[in-house]
Design a protein that fits this description.
- This protein has 307 residues and is α+β, with helices and mostly antiparallel strands.
- 26% of the residues lie in helices and 27% in strands.
- A five-stranded antiparallel β-sheet has the order 13-12-11-14-15. The chain has a four-stranded parallel β-sheet with strand order 3-2-1-6.
Length: 307
């Protein structure tokens, strides 16, 4: 296993790089279906990249400008976080007009704990990102904990049942914005999508990285702020100033080699001094891509280059 392949490439997507991709005509040649429970931020990215999309989400949204040809809505199931009605979503895909029926699919939130739903979509449409099995493996906190241990990556401990004592968080697999994350002692009973994770000290951050199956590149770093729900902002501490970018790149490369990752990913972690601990990996498109110039173009380039 080449755990150190291309580990020295730590380079945010710059405006000239993004401009060159647009000039190459990558996005305009492609049309796609974009599906996410809350697709607004990703739809804006698609519009900025001049990528014609049909957008499917949980809520009825205002039609975008010319590049966003159609909004479709599916009903919402209230299970602690917004999610798709699976049968309604499949019906929406089946009912797409002929000119959209064979589109490749970009996907965001809504499938982390339901990879079988993504797999059904993937039977008829090319997925522009990781396949359903990879998403399911990474999204399951206990499976990912085993992967992290196997790769000797620092990972915050997880538990299926509520641990005794302080210092644990109750989380949901399908909670994109941490809106339902609470100290473990404040919850009663265990929900189907709930798990518990050790609360780590230090600065809560994210790293976006893009994988092509052959190489990894860090796109940017962000800081998390909790204000009722989690929000992210771009961090200026990019490069050697923070001291963890090289570690992140090495970890991302190991994960790519082990799992065959492709496209954009978000790695959540805590950093304290020279130490860092991973909280989770999100192996799909996320709203935080809007923080970094050219992130969607970088995703498309890596996916289209992947065999």
């Amino acid at each position: 296993m080449r755990a150190d392949a291309d580990a020295d490439e730590v380079m945010p997507v710059s405006q000239p790089q993004a401009a060159s991709r647009r000039a190459a005509g990558l996005a305009p040649r492609l049309k796609a279906a974009l599906v996410a429970t809350r697709p607004v931020a990703l739809a804006r990215l698609a519009e900025d990249a001049q990528l014609p999309c049909v957008v499917i989400g949980c809520t009825t949204l205002q039609r975008g400008r010319a590049t966003l040809h159609q909004w479709l809505a599916t009903p919402t199931e209230h299970t602690g976080a917004e999610e798709f009605d699976g049968a309604a979503l499949i019906r929406r895909f089946s009912a797409l007009p002929a000119q959209w029926s064979a589109l490749p699919v970009l996907y965001g939130a809504g499938f982390d704990h339901r990879p079988e739903l993504l797999a059904r979509i993937g039977r008829r449409h090319r997925l522009l990102g990781n396949d359903a099995d990879t998403l399911g493996l990474v999204s399951d906190p206990f499976s990912f904990a085993e992967i992290a241990r196997h790769l000797k990556l620092p990972f915050a401990a997880v538990s299926e049942s509520r641990p005794d004592g302080p210092g644990w968080l109750a989380r949901h697999v399908n909670d994109e914005y941490d809106a339902h994350t609470l100290p473990a002692h404040r919850v009663r009973g265990d929900a189907l999508t709930r798990y518990y994770q050790r609360e780590m000290p230090g600065r809560r951050m994210l790293a976006l990285f893009v994988a092509s199956g052959r190489r990894v590149r860090v796109v940017g770093l962000g800081d998390y702020v909790m204000d009722g729900h989690r929000r992210a902002s771009a961090s200026r501490a990019v490069g050697t100033a923070l001291g963890v970018v090289e570690l992140i790149t090495q970890a991302a490369n190991r994960l790519m080699v082990e799992l065959g990752l492709v496209g954009m990913h978000r790695l959540d972690f805590c950093v304290q001094g020279a130490s860092w601990v991973i909280e989770r990996l999100t192996a799909r498109l996320t709203d935080e891509m809007a923080l970094f110039e050219g992130a969607l173009e970088a995703h498309l380039s890596s996916v289209m280059d992947h065999p």
